[in-house]
Amino acid sequence: MYDMYRENILDHAKHMRNHGLLDPNDFDHEEHNPLCGDTLHLTLRLDADGIIREVGWEGSGCAISQASASMLGERLIGMSLADAKALNRQYVLDLIGFPLTMNRVKCALLSLKTLVVGAYGHEHWITIEDRDEA
Amino acid sequence: MTDPIFPYDIATVRADFPVLHQEHHPGTPLVFLDNAASSQKPAAVIDAMSTYYRQSHANVHRGIHKLSEEATAAYEGARKKVQRFIHAASPREIIFTRGTTESINLVAQTWGRATLGPGDVVLATVMEHHANIVPWQMLAQEKGFSLQYVPLLPDGTLNLEVYRRWLHELPVKLVTVMHGSNVLGTVNPVAHMARLAHEAGALILVDGAQSVPHMPVDVQALDCDFLAFSGHKMAAPTGVGVLYGKRALLEAMPPWMGGGDMISRVTLAGSTWNELPYKFEAGTPAIAEVIGLGVAVDYLSALGMENIHRQEQLITRYALERLSEIPGVTVYGQAEQRGAVAAFTVDGIHAHDVAQMLDADGIAVRAGHHCAMPLHDLLSLPATARASFYLYNTPAEVDALVTALYRAKQAFA
Ligand SMILES: Cc1ncc(COP(=O)(O)O)c(C=O)c1O
Predict the structure, then answer these.
(1) Ligand 1 center to residue B132 CA distance, Å?
(2) CB B183 near ligand 1, within 6 Å
């Protein structure tokens, strides 16, 4: 299980990309994982066409949750917010790139949850979770 | 550990617990140090439940046929075992619930709902488990009483000066306090606290989830009004726990859930309540689990709660010593009276990652806030890792924990 801490995860956890909040911004949302108390605060800047140009985030939590925020943040740049909102669980799990145990999946998905809840509200996130788990 | 003077042979005890004899992965034995969350079960408990289902299952209190009689006798026999185990005056004072959480909710929803109102104070502490905070918050919102929390001293013990003062200054109706902390390990002086509470005209509820499994607990010596605990933390199955209450209090309390078994007589116009303890046991109970709890109590009593306590004190002291040797490791709670729990952090590694890396070496610990978020907020910690011990843990397992922590530190260095 030391697999979980392969180079890319430790690299992102130690050298977080796009770390630090953007102010002013066009998207600002904070979420936490009630199971473990991990938090993630995500801010975005969009251009006139709705394309994400800058990502800034801060959080506290385990290496998996922080690395996931760092990895997802990199991918969001250049994406339209509409496309970003349509990302699913598997997209993030693929970024992590190796199988996670059930409890750690929640850690990895905190970044996506923050984006989706900020964009669509909590109900929508529950729908995504239920659909993907079914 | 050199020449430990253990009160019983741990190898013999370990042989009784089937779960412990497995490899986490080939070549790496399982080291189970998550006992504060839930303990493992001896074969005697597992077999008793299986035998019950294979040979004598029927509903209790409802049949005059042989199997129902057998089931009822086993169920009520377990109640008497629990009564003797905690030295209650009568088996009628033993109410079977699903666990500590349900026991506390029962007191809140019956005694609390009937008694508490605006102007009253319920006194809890900042170290409580969510199970002893949230039921009172929910009721306070509805009934308008005030919920206050006794603060901590720097060593992780309760500030008893403040406790004493608040009992004098505030209209306290109930003190609700954990006996043993599931994070700091602190064992609170509940007998002393009960005396002070009673002098001030208040009742006291003791959350015994982390004490009853680990040390002798005598409800009459403590003079507590209520005691709540869970079977699954004391070698018994999940799904069963106990509420002890002084008989006069229980008699005066209204029932909580309505249904079968809890009634004396039902007419369409209304119902009257059954006698204790059935008044509080609506519906078909967890019969196999209660029987399992009775066997677990036999098992613990045969080893002796004094012996179990001594054994755990030795292991815990050794663990605290070894953990404090590791650079960058901080252990929380320095109380003199301490249970078998060591919550710690490792500089630069989140508690989740610590737990995950320990798991890779076969070691089960818990990471998170351990259902004590207010306490972690006070300590300014998002999460801690926690090693917790039970009657079967060995010094060699503590050594394995320490070795694995050095390895984790290496990986993150
Ligand atoms: C001190 C304390 N109180 C209450 C509980 C809740 O017990 P249960 O989940 O068995 O109801 C626990 C265990 O998690 C505990 O450690």
Answers:
(1) 9
(2) no
Nearest CA in chain A to B412: A10
Residue A119: Cβ-neighbour burial (10 angstroms; 0-12, 13-18, 19+): middle
- Pair (B295, B313) in one structural domain: no
Residues B225 and B174 in one domain: yes
Q: What's the pLDDT tens digit per position in B131-162?
A: 999 999 999 999 999 999 999 999 999 999 99
Q: Is B345 in the pocket of ligand 1 (CB under 6 A)?
A: no
Q: Which residue range is the domain that position B111 belongs to? A: 47-302
B157 lines ligand 1 (CB under 6 A): no
Confirm or reject: Cβ of B124 under 6 Å from ligand 1: no
Strands (DSSP E) found in B126-211: 146-150, 172-178, 203-207
Quote the strand ranges of B74-225, DSSP E. 94-97, 121-125, 146-150, 172-178, 203-207
Q: Is A104 an interface residue toward B (CB < 8 Å)?
A: yes
The domain total for chain B is 2
Q: Is B371 a catalytic residue?
A: yes
Dihedral sign for Cα B304, B309, B314, B318, please. positive
A34 touches chain B (CB under 8 A): no
For ligand 1, the distance from its centroid to the CA atom of residue B182, given in whole angstroms, is 8
C-alpha span between A27 and A44 (Å, rounded): 5
Provide the edge-to-edge strand list for the sheet that holds A27-32: A27-32, A39-46, A52-60
Task: Read off the pTM.
Answer: 0.90
Contact criterion met (CB below 8 Å) for B331 and B361: no
Q: Ligand 1, closest atom to CA B178? A: 1
Q: Which tens digits make up the pLDDT trace of A53-98?
A: 999 999 998 999 999 999 999 999 999 988 998 899 999 999 998 8
Match 């659909």 to its residue by tokens. A131
Q: Which residue of chain B comes nearest to A60, CA vs CA?
A: B382
Strand pairing partners for A29? A42
DSSP B46: H
Nearest residue, CB atoms, B368 vs list A2, A10, A37: A37
Partner-chain residue, chosen from A1, A10, A107, that has the shortest CB–CB distance to B352? A107
Residue B329: both structure tokens together:
């490791």
Tally the domains of chain A: 1
Catalytic residue among B371, B378, B381, B402: B371
* Cα B52 from Cα A36, distance rounded (Å): 38
CATH assignment of the domain containing B180: 3.40.640.10
Domain's final residue, options B302, B324, B348 = B302
How is residue B126 written in tokens?
């900042």
CB-nearest partner of B368 from A4, A5, A36: A36
Question: Which atom belonging to ligand 1 lies closest to the Cα atom of B131?
Answer: 4
Residue B259 DSSP code: S
Contacts of B283 (CB under 8 A, 6+ apart): B257, B259, B260, B261, B262
- pLDDT mean over B198-210: 98
CA distance B111 to B250: 8
